[in-house]
Amino acid sequence: MIFVVGGAFQGKGKAAASLAAETIGTSGEILRADAGEIGLAQLEARAFDVLEHVHLLVREELCRRMEQDDSSAWDTDQKAAAEAAVFQAVRDGLDGVIRRNPGVILTMDELGCGVVPMTYGDRAYREIAGRIGCALAAEAEEVYRVTCGIAKKIK
Length: 155
Description:
6-stranded mixed β-sheet, single chain, globular, alpha/beta, 4 helices
């Protein structure tokens, strides 16, 4: 698995397509988690070489859980349990993708820089996405950081 990370609109998708061309000889099948093409529930049903915007799978799953329960009434323990469940659901989905296609390329926006969000949902989204990113980077064979369209191999 190759993991590509960087700020929003920095050229991660183009870098991932270029990496796919180098590794499989073509840009392969590219899916975007933000284009309604795929969500966490559909990961197993689709074949692809590049999955862009992995962080949005976290948002989708967190929003689903917050809507399912009355998240405004969650206490600290319920928030921690929900965050752990979202992390695990996303990890399980991505683990299945990686198992089926060890050469998959995953892209993710770097969310941890900037002002701390005011709402619980936004803070939880950023925290869980950051943890997913750390786990993917640790597991990846190669990790690239993209800034201004330039991919720099960091692992």
